[in-house]
Amino acid sequence: MNIVFDFGGVVFRWHPPSFLARVWPHRVPDLAAAEATAAAFFENYGGDWGAFDQGLIDAPTVVRRIAARTGWPEAEVAAVVAAVPDELQALPGTVALIQELKAAGHRLFYLSNMPEPYAEHLERAHPLRQWFEGGVFSGRVKHSKPREEIYRIAEQRFGVAPQSLLFLDDHPANITAAKARGWQALLFSNAEALRPELRALKLL
């Protein structure tokens, strides 16, 4: 099987409310504030952040736009943007699952909405070439999930038919888009919860 991993929230830690609570404790006193602040900052990965994800604007530009839109000081917004790489810590359970799936003979790839600066950080900080045969970062192809075009690009890059791909992602919209292309797909919550589904498919 050709198994395609999302990165943020699947292979690497990424939960914007708890992230902002750590980076911005003065602005995020409780969970409700964390949820609202994350929604305003990242705009559900549309708007300013979506353009950053797609490589259409750079980090200084996204900082200026978020600050102008929200009224938050540019220096504080820049601190959040700069803190993202340290937040993207590899999830041990998923890393173990990657190693098991590779040992079982499956081909592994990735498809991630990731701005170029963060993609470069992940390539430096983690053995992506050991874990995966290849992958697609949104910031490098100027398209992002759940738009159809990035799935088509992934199919071409991986050189496999849609029906032979199994996609693991933590956002329902991305799962729906993958299935619309003919991919198999499973909604990811954590590695342990995924194991029974993979065993049912005889992949483990």
Automatic annotation (TrEMBL):
Source species, domain of life: Bacteria
Pfam families associated with the record: Hydrolase
CDD domains for this protein: HAD_sEH-N_like
Name of the protein described by the UniProt record: HAD family phosphatase
Organism: Paucibacter sediminis
